[in-house]
Amino acid sequence: MKFVAVCACPAGLMHTFMASKGLKKEMTKAGDEIKIETQSASGIENELTLEDVAQADAVILAIDTAIQGMERFNGKKIVQVSTTQVLKNTKGVIAQAKSLVKGE
What end-to-end distance do the CA atoms of the chain give, in Å? Predict the structure, then answer.
């Protein structure tokens, strides 16, 4: 499966990047594709393109604050969780996203 994600926390420091790293690691292990954008105090990194979003089966928003560009995800299947949820249960969040894609 193919996913895109945005990770962001209010300070944009540790949780943002730890959540991103965890999602990338577990998705790679599972043989899935993911492209992750981070939004932090230093700005947007690895910005998702409209093409990235269009090609994705679903979107994972691991966010604890408002993010820029939410309109890109209109009409997409979205799992929205906190960065803390990703840190505590990355596999569970990924399973939730996969279930959404499968229509379960």
Answer: 15
41: helix, strand or coil: coil
CATH code of residue 47: 3.40.50.2300
Assess whether 9 carries a catalytic annotation. Answer: yes
Q: For residue 40, what are the domain limits?
A: 2-102
Q: pTM of the full predicted structure?
A: 0.95
- pLDDT, tens digit only, all 104 positions of the chain: 999 999 999 876 789 999 999 999 999 999 999 999 999 888 899 999 999 999 999 999 999 999 999 999 999 999 999 999 999 999 999 999 999 999 97
Selecting among 9, 34, 53, 94, the annotated active-site residue is 9
Within 31-81, strands assigned E span 33-40, 43-45, 58-63, 78-81
